[in-house]
């Protein structure tokens, strides 16, 4: 029986080690995040530590995003899929891999990143949103691309919508209906749409 491989998780962990060792230049907050991750990988072996790093969940999220196509520029013209850089893999794997040992609920509910323009933040955010919408085992998931203006709200929803339209296997596999201003899944009522301001009463966002 062949052993499972975790190339994306391995790359994320290597990134953390390289940052901590000073091989990759990073700010104080990134260094601290990487150190915490490495420290907690050791701490998870203790029964008293509440969390564990689920490599299967982390690898699954990273693989899903990298099945999606680029939607702008030369790479989109060539129909190339997204390739996550090591720092992006670190963010994705930490967000989706760390879970509570007892409940298996995610440890981290919020992720904060500061990324310069033209570094793929909209495409990666769209990939994360689509994963939470279609592939995160959340029945009736509500996913929103929120902002203070309609134009900003569409910055993530637009590429996500294009990704679905250009990936028929994705929409067929998960029963996704792609509409002009939203996406939904009739099977369980899941929906993904742009949003101006905060969700109203009655909303229960799974991802925003």
TrEMBL record:
InterPro entries xref list: P-loop_NTPase, TerL_ATPase, Terminase_largesu-like
Domain Terminase large subunit-like ATPase: 86-170
Organism, scientific name: Escherichia coli
PANTHER family per UniProt: PROTEIN YMFN, PTHR41287
Chain positions covered by the region annotation Disordered: 188-208
Protein name: Terminase large subunit
Transmembrane segments: none
